[in-house]
Amino acid sequence: MFNVREITTEDVELLLDYWYSRSDDQLIKMGANPSKMPSREVFRINILNQLSLNYKLKKAYATIWLYNGIPIGHNNINKIIFGQEAYMHLHIWDVENRLKGLGQKLIKKSIALFFKNFNLQILFCEPYSKNPAPNKLLRKLGFTFMKKYSTIPGSINFKQEVNRWALSKEKFDTLKWI
After folding, report:
1. Residue 58's domain is classified under what CATH number?
2. Which domain holds residue 63?
3. Less Cβ around it within 10 Å: N or C end of the chain?
4. Are the CB atoms for 129 and 138 separated by under 8 Å?
5. For the segment 21-75, what is each residue's pLDDT rounded down to a tens digit?
6. DSSP 8-class letter at 101
């Protein structure tokens, strides 16, 4: 019913469709600045370039979330320092699949892959503070709230208040959901 796998070349268009089918208002609600979005082709090339790299060389990594065999979202990390840390992002593509608890079931499997494949000691997530769903989910998963601060969290974002959450390897190893 629920499954998570590494992104493949066949998934790239689905991921791009998610980003490039959003209205400006939808992008802003996620914390993205529509004027900073790269062209679809540049985004495609960036994703494809990461797929063939060894884990130690990847700057970004994504998992695809499946429900009943159908891709419904993705979970990715970037700012990866192999053996140390990474920053996580989560996206359920279709509105109909949000707020149903699917993300909580799927993200657990992705997080396990992130810690294993990148030998992480800590995993961060910095959702837009005005986006309640990911903040609530991170608390439920056992992430520790670190701070709220203003930053430009990524290349497609505007300056915004984010909540920094962290999950250490030590705490991850004690969680009962793994």
Report:
1. 3.40.630.30
2. 2-123
3. N
4. no
5. 999 999 998 889 999 999 999 999 999 999 999 999 999 999 999 988 999 899 9
6. S
Tell how far CA 8 is from the center of its chain: 16
Query: Is 120 strand, coil or helix?
Result: coil
Is residue 166 assigned to a domain? no
Fill in the DSSP letter of residue 121.
S
Residue 95 lies in a domain: yes
Residue 8: count of CB within 10 angstroms of its CB: 10
Q: Is residue 49 part of a domain?
A: yes
Please report which residue ranges of 71-128 form alpha helices under DSSP H. 102-118
Give 167's strand partners: 123
Q: How many CA within 13 A on the CB side of residue 75?
A: 26
Q: Residue 44: count other Cβ atoms within 10 Å of its Cβ.
A: 16
Residue 65: strand pairing partners: 4, 73
pTM: 0.91
Pairing of strands 85-92, 70-81: antiparallel
Residue 12 is assigned to a structural domain of this protein:
yes
Residue 173 burial (10 A CB sphere; 0-12, 13-18, 19+): exposed
SS3 state at 95: helix
Local structure of 63: helix, strand or coil: strand
Tokens matching residue 169: 């390897």
**Coil, strand or helix: which one is 72?**
strand
